[in-house]
What we know:
Elements: H1 3-26, E1 67-72, E2 78-92, E3 95-100, E4 107-111, E5 116-123, E6 126-135, E7 138-148, E8 162-166, E9 171-175, E10 179-182, E11 186-191, E12 194-205, E13 216-218, H2 220-260
Parallel strand pairs: 10-13
Antiparallel strand pairs: 1-2, 2-3, 2-12, 4-5, 5-6, 6-7, 7-8, 7-9, 10-12, 11-12
Amino acid sequence: MTHASCYIALFLLLSSMHWLGSSLASNPLQLSATADEVPAIINSDPPITNLSPRPVLQPKESTPPEFLYTLRNPQGKVCVRASLGVEYVVRENKKNYYFNVNPSFTRVSGYCGSQKSVFSLGFEGGHLQFTFIKEGDLSYVNTVRGLLRPVPPCKICQNKTYVGVVNHEKLFKAKNGFSFQCKSQTTLILASYFRVKLVPLQIQAFDLGNGAFGKEVECWDDYNKRMIPIILGAVAAAVCLIAILTYLLVRERRNQGYEQL
């Protein structure tokens, strides 16, 4: 091939490449990936920006979810165990508002001691704290502190923080190694405008064998609910028995009077 022929062929090749590049620029290729090339996203949910929202007060009361919470010492041994549902009650503008603690958004904190333990349930916008005291052969809750910082219940309502405490009491008293249990509703008045309801409740600090609850000590409300029907039944049976005996006695005396005539 002569030099002139080579120059002509090179010129034609460069012209063709220039035309192809112009065509691609004006009409780009539509690329699509197959399922094998790009992993599919299945059941994708919107990103969660707040796992634990601030408490929202409700105008109607409902049963709070029950959950078993445990607090462990640095060695991993359970030192406080509590099974309960927690409901806050707020008094605002002469109305009651309610908030149930969600166990999914609740964390346990505190510390374990030989004579004193602190057990706290914390969540975004509030907490509930119990202070346990061991005194001789008894243990009890000496202090209960509550805090709630909810979303305002109405548009014109201001942001408020509700704080209250029950102090220097002997609540949920039980012998060492025993747990306190109350299936009835337990209401603690933390302030005139702020209270907390625990239902049902089983709680114990100190001397938890294998991390499990000890034998239950029944609260007075449960005892009364259990015993009142028994007492009423016994009274009703006694009244019926007295009525029957009285009837038989009167009948016997009448029969004796007829024989004398």
